[in-house]
Amino acid sequence: MTESSANKPANGDACHRASGAKKPGRNGYVKSPHLIQQKHCHAKERSHHVITCNGGLYSRPFDESFEETPMLVAVLTYMGYGILTLFGYLRDFLREWKIEKCHIAREREEQRDFVPLYQDFENFYTRNLYMRIRDSWNRPICSVPGARMDLVERLSHDYNWTFQHMGKVIKDVINMGSYNYLGFAENSGACLEAAAEATAEYGVGVSSTRQELGNLDKHEELEKLVARFLGVEATMAFGMGFATNSMNIPALAGKGCLILSDELNHASLVLGARLSGSTIRVFKHNNMQSLEKLLRDAIVHGQPRTHRPWKKILIVVEGIYSMEGSIVRLPEVIALKKKYKAYLYLDEAHSIGALGPHGRGVIDYFGLDPRDVDILMGTFTKSFGAAGGYIGGKKELIDYLRTHSHSAVYATSMSPPVVEQIITSMKCIMGEDGTTVGQERIQRLADNTTYFRRKLREMGFIIYGNNDSPVVPVMLYMPAKIGAFSREMLKRNIGVVVVGFPATPIIESRARFCVSAAHTRDMLDVALSAISEVGDLLQLKYSRHRALLTADWSSDDTSYDGIEN
Amino acid sequence: MDVKNLKDYLHWLYYQYLLITSIYVLEPWEQTLFNTVLFTMVAMVIYTSYVFVPIHVRLALKFFSGLCGGQQESTVALIS
């Protein structure tokens, strides 16, 4: 990934917009743009990057950076993986020759000559690398996953093959990993009481599908509310977020259609696209030139052998990409979609509720019209503290999906307390419950995000992604540091999520922090000091751009190359 | 307190070595095995350089000085 710190003030308007730039409720974008805007007007022509200002598509600077992996770190990471592979071969050899006991699933002696059930080599990575640091994942939580949580303490006497629970609990661990962006994962308050009432009235199980007898009046109420929230004509809610994507894309596209999907799309989108049977072409992550080239090729050449025109072209993107923390370039995608007459499927799993001055997602963040996006998909898992997903769009589309979607026809509908939780939290965000709690939470999330990202950058970590995204990936790179980081943070009472291969490229393993509105400034400070301590202990501060990001940088060429420390 | 600081510093250096080579995730006997093999190889490299490098350097210097300085010198003097 190359250095692309694209700070775009968007247009000639930027110069005279600078004076009135502070709008109320700007989703935490509190940086004072005066100096930068004015100087950027001159710097524009001299900039290295040929990204134009796109004729006024962006109403605010789009600030993303993916710092390149330092060469020495990359070489050492490969060396580390090489050493672990050698030891993996050694252990496999010992297991094969029965010198060591094998804990992994094996076929029985009598079945040796049959077609193999367990592919030994494919599990090489799992057996020899993942198992050794397995205690960083699947930690049992025994409280509500709010800003603080309780973890069950596990001990392993055979190097993570089995765990024993000794009955002890680690209390009040600061939770930096839950997708709790607006802090609705709580066990007290209005949402909980409403959900309890709904359970008392409707019970918990629905015992049917939406098409048969599972359509409660609560579901209708929810769908109307979500439609109002998003600004679309109609929506439909499903019980599971993953199933919303994987079961609905096959209903929307089929053979003879083309799906243009981003490189780093989530597994549910990829699965849905594959199940649909359409042709899938992949464009580079968030790269509009690549997308435009694919669109032009598709329209000019048509289907592969017959050269007939495609039945439809569906562009599938996500609002926030959770592994990178990047935000989609939505204004440009919509401009391209309109120019080439394609359809747009926007998956707002992480961005709904978390972005935008009113919490309405990435469309609100860019100030666009929800009617420009054909299919708006999202989940209730992240910002609403519930479970499930929704699809929104025109009424004809939703009516079609009600009969043709696998999820609507075969899957059990959402449970009533969950529906009530979503209704209450959504009303809270919209401000319809009569308080300003929702707006405060949105503002607090934005402040927390800006503060957290700025502090981590100042400390010298390599952070990926957009400055406004509440998902913060901190790069670790080396395989031993994945396990070491997780364990050291737990010793300091902070729970983090670390990610390695195969969810990320092999050398780019990372720790992913999710900022929440439930975190107070003190909690973030405690977390930040612990992260800094562990960063020094493990030597994680790889960044070569330190002491940046105050409003008084001289914005000549150095604003793109970074300032050498 | 310098000894204590020194010990801590060495411990931290060893920890960095464990992390960078990814030995940190291995079981203790594997760590011992790797350390033994690495130490043996490093010891062999040091021994080889101790024994052979001075002789090679001396020969090289003689060769180059013979080449540049004395064109009159006979080749017999060079070999002895």
TrEMBL record, chain B:
It comes from the Eukaryota. This is Serine palmitoyltransferase small subunit B. It comes from Paramormyrops kingsleyae. It is found in: Endoplasmic reticulum membrane. It is a multi-pass membrane protein. Component of the serine palmitoyltransferase multisubunit enzyme (SPT) that catalyzes the initial and rate-limiting step in sphingolipid biosynthesis by condensing L-serine and activated acyl-CoA (most commonly palmitoyl-CoA) to form long-chain bases. The SPT complex is composed of SPTLC1, SPTLC2 or SPTLC3 and SPTSSA or SPTSSB. Within this complex, the heterodimer consisting of SPTLC1 and SPTLC2/SPTLC3 forms the catalytic core. Within the SPT complex, SPTSSB stimulates the catalytic activity and plays a role in substrate specificity. The keyword Transcription does not apply. Pathway: Sphingolipid metabolism; Lipid metabolism; sphingolipid metabolism. GO terms for molecular function: serine C-palmitoyltransferase activity. Belongs to the SPTSS family. SPTSSB subfamily. Keywords: Endoplasmic reticulum, Lipid metabolism, Membrane, Sphingolipid metabolism, Transmembrane, Transmembrane helix. The chain crosses the membrane at residues 9-26, 32-53. Component of the serine palmitoyltransferase (SPT) complex, which is composed of SPTLC1, SPTLC2 or SPTLC3 and SPTSSA or SPTSSB. The heterodimer consisting of SPTLC1 and SPTLC2/SPTLC3 forms the catalytic core of the enzyme, while SPTSSA or SPTSSB subunits determine substrate specificity. SPT also interacts with ORMDL proteins, especially ORMDL3, which negatively regulate SPT activity in the presence of ceramides. GO terms for cellular component: endoplasmic reticulum membrane; serine palmitoyltransferase complex. Pfam families: SPT_ssu-like (PF11779). The keyword Cell wall biogenesis/degradation does not apply. One of its GO terms (biological process) is endoplasmic reticulum organization. Its main location: endoplasmic reticulum.
